[in-house]
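Name: Complement protein
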Amino acid sequence: NPVESVPQEGNWSCWAAWSGCSGGKRIRTRSCNTQCLSDATCRGDIVTEDYC
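Structure predicted for Complement protein:
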């Protein structure tokens, strides 16, 4: 029997600091840490924004 590949899930880093306010909005980002798993992904958003 062939071994079935199960998708791996990465882990999110902490959110970066908020950007400066521009056009009434600010953003922050985070990274998906896949720990050397080339096919791993993270669920959720890599960027979030807020009004300022």
